[in-house]
Write a structure and sequence with these properties.
There is one protein chain. By secondary structure, the protein is an alpha/beta fold. The chain has two domains: about 150 residues, Rossmann fold, CATH 3.40.50.1970; about 35 residues. Helices cover about 45% and strands about 15% of the residues. α3 links the parallel β3 and β4. The N terminus is likely disordered. It binds 5-aminoimidazole ribonucleotide.
Length: about 200
């Protein structure tokens, strides 16, 4: 599987002539979910993992969702990330149509701030699992990382990139702690609020 070309930084999911085959499919219930799902996209781009993304609603376009998912495996997709807000049945419906692992992201754009989406996604009946992430941006970010971790099981290069990602994250926390002890709490908070 050739999934690590450098051209990935240039939004390959928009490119119809894509040479590298996407291994992760992202489906969102509405275009209004895209700003949150940008976090997933950022991670996959940072790790250099090709993906595809589409919009499909379990309620508004159930046939389109079923058709899209039924061909995912034969297109080379290994993991599906499904995100929706409100009565978020999309991840569960997707999971019912495939044996590929499905990661669900509850979107926090409803009057109930995503708690409704979390409950709709997390409490699946036995037999049809959905790996449910946290509500909102952190969940979207973790969906990308979790999908990459699944891909890394058979791709040592992705595994290495995930370890580098962890190292960079730890370094950034350490440099914040160093700065805090260097300039003190008052100045630190000032520099944060001035940003
Ligand atoms: N949604 C769309 N079809 C079924 C559901 N649950 C969700 C979308 C979005 C929210 O409804 O995932 O989070 C509002 O969608 P819109 O298109 O009205 O902005």
């Amino acid at each position: 599987m050739h999934i690590f070309a450098k051209t990935l930084a240039i939004e390959p999911y928009l490119d119809k002539e894509l040479i590298m085959k996407p291994v992760i499919a992202i489906i969102v219930g509405s275009d209004s979910d895209l700003p949150v799902i940008q976090e997933t996209i950022n991670i996959l781009e940072e790790l250099g993992i090709p993906f595809e993304i589409t919009i499909g609603s379990a309620h508004r376009t159930p046939d389109r969702v079923a058709e899209y998912i039924s061909t995912a495996s034969e297109r080379g997709i290994k993991v599906i990330i499904a995100a929706a807000g409100g009565a978020a049945h999309l991840p569960g419906v997707v999971a019912s149509k495939t044996i590929l692992p499905v990661i669900g992201v509850p979107i926090d754009n409803s009057p109930l701030n995503g708690l409704d989406s979390l409950y709709s996604i997390v409490q699946m009946p036995g037999g049809i699992p959905v790996a449910t992430m946290a509500i909102g941006r952190a969940g979207a970010q973790n969906a990308g990382i979790f999908a990459a971790q699944i891909i890394a099981l058979s791709e040592p290069e992705v595994s290495q990139r995930l370890m580098d990602y962890r190292r960079r994250m730890a370094e950034s926390v350490k440099s914040k702690a160093d700065k805090l002890s260097e300039i003190g709490i008052k100045k630190y908070i000032e520099t944060k609020t001035n940003r």
